Amino acid sequence: NAGVTQTPKFQVLKTGQSMTLQCAQDMNHEYMSWYRQDPGMGLRLIHYSVGAGITDQGEVPNGYNVSRSTTEDFPLRLLSAAPSQTSVYFCASSMTGTSGRYEQYFGPGTRLTVT
Amino acid sequence: SQKIEQNSEALNIQEGKTATLTCNYTNYSPAYLQWYRQDPGRGPVFLLLIRENEKEKRKERLKVTFDTTLKQSLFHITASQPADSATYLCALDEVGTYKYIFGTGTRLKVLA
Questions:
Q1: Cβ–Cβ below 8 Å for B44 and A106
Q2: Is A98 left (phi over 0), alpha (psi -120 to 50) or beta?
Q3: Contact A107, B45 (CB under 8 A)
Q4: In terms of Cα–Cα distance, which of B40, B35, B42, B46 is closest to B6?
């Protein structure tokens, strides 16, 4: 199993550009999520999904969109990039059941710089 | 709002000693608490999970305690090794949701 994969590994955008960060998992996990990690801030939840067709907002959803058309894929879209979105982005997946009961598997991350 | 506090200062410890990391939380009572390890430039990796009705959980050289009265979890690494050097994160879920909250992590450095 490849686990959780993310592409690209690195990306530089200009302010106002849009892009999609890709995330895929091959563990048949229903739960998938996106986090951003900034120095001194820890991991903050952007959006999450508990199954295909079901998404919800996390702590810091503004400026990001998600959709979940398949169990395997959970792309994160930046509609109009801003310097404040410079960060490292992690995708994670887990089994779904009693909340908090199952460990999350994380991807390797995407380092995004917005100039 | 929910909040998790971990010692943001790095912890330096001599090889062979026991490292103890602290995770304090406020405002709610989670059913589960998780600990992760993160190496530079990589995603977090799950280590241990402890339930609210468990006082202690062990896995090899790792031990986690969970005190719901103090709202605190302690993470211990016994016989620490330089390879244990990493950042350790604790995480909780907001009860009744699938929203996970992570602490900022504590950086551990084990000196040879």
A1: yes
A2: beta
A3: no
A4: B35
Interior angle at CA A52, CA A45 and CA A43, nearest 5 = 10
For residue A96, CA distances in Å to A25, A45, A103 come to: 14, 17, 10
Side chain identity, residue B60? E
Nearest-CA distance from A97 to chain B in Å?
9
Which amino acid type is present at position B57?
A: K
Q: Which tens digits make up the pLDDT trace of B80-110?
A: 999 999 999 999 887 777 888 999 999 999 9
Amino acid letter, B111 = L
Sign of the Cα pseudo-torsion (A18, A29, B56, B71, in order) = positive
Does the distance separating the beta carbons of B8 and A108 come in below 8 Å? no
Summarised one tens digit per residue, pLDDT across range B15-64 is 999 999 999 998 777 878 999 999 999 999 999 999 888 889 999 999 99
